[in-house]
Structure formats: structure tokens, C-alpha cells
Amino acid sequence: MTTNATSTAFAVWLTGLPASGKSTIARELTTQLETLGFTVDVLESDAVRRVLTPHPTYSQAERDLFYRALAFMGTRLVSHGITVIFDATANRRTYRDFARSLIPRFIEVAVECPLELAMRRDYKGTYRRGQRGESATVPGLQEPYEAPLNPEVRIDTTKVSAKEAAGMILKFVQDNMQ
User: Fold this and answer.
1) Contact, 96 vs 13, CB < 8 A?
2) Which of 4, 6, 64, 143 could be disulfide-bonded to 38 (CB atoms 3.0-4.6 Å)?
3) Domain 9-176 classification at class level
4) Where are the domains positioned within the chain?
5) 81-106 per-position pLDDT tens digit
6) pTM of the prediction?
7) What are the DSSP calls for 108-172, one per residue?
């Protein structure tokens, strides 16, 4: 694979329940892509949210605006030759479909993990806050999570490591994004 140029940049959206393994896979995928000469930027939803909505309510209207803005940011980066990894739950398909409509070279990755395991992995306390009633909008608990219907890559985090998951995505890139 050659170094990154505008014509080879693409976007990968890692979607799954909170604490399903998206961030761990994003870090590993970034390393593997950079080793191949790609310039990569990760749009991690929590980091971007701190700027766009410093006091988030996670209302439907706020999420709609947030994910439109996130997709727009990704579009701009890809148009400048930067490969983008979206590390974001994006609990509704429409959010990911909107990004796909803006970014022609788009890979949707379903990061699959049973809710019970995600709840055990939850180092941020998202599910605990939801269970205590401190948050009423946790995807998988109070809000629906709409899994991808036809993702380009499907990863079961109960069966593969982050390194193997990144390798699966990289194989898709090498086979389909040249």
C-alpha cells in the first residue's frame, strides 16, 4: 500500500454499544494504518462532544446535531487526504448512513459485544449511571442501539483481540480500498 493521498483517504466508522471495544480497536487500527504510511485522525465521540456540547444532555435533537457535525468533520478530513476513524456509538443507523452519504470511501464496522459483557467492561461508568437513573439515554439500556444491517466488517469482540480486529479491517481496506 502506498502513502496516503487525497484519492486514497477513507473513513472507518466503528460502531457498537458503549464499552464494546471500539476505542481499543481504534488505537490498534491507527497504529497499523500509520505503519503503512497513512495519515490517520480519530474522531472519538467523547473528545469531540466536550467541544461541541460541553454540558451534554444526550437529547435526540442534540444527538442529531452532534452526529451531523461529526460526519461533516470526517468529510473535511478525508477530502484533505486524512484517513478518519470514527470511534462513536452512533446508536441510530441514520447517523452512520448520513456519514456514508458524504464520504464515498466509507467502511462501517460493527463492533459486536453482548450488553452484559459491555456492562462489565464499562470503565467510564456509563451503564452504572443509567442503572442508577442518573442518565436516561444510555444506548442499549434506555435508548435503542440500531446495529448495522450490512456492515463491511463485523467484529465479535468475544472472539478476537483488538489486534486481530484491526487486522480484519486492514484486510478489507487492502482488498477493497485501493
Assistant:
1) yes
2) 4
3) alpha beta
4) 9-176
5) 999 999 999 999 999 999 999 999 99
6) 0.92
7) EEEEE--HHHHHHH-TT-HHHHHHTTS-S--BTTTB-----SS-SEEEETTTS-HHHHHHHHHHH
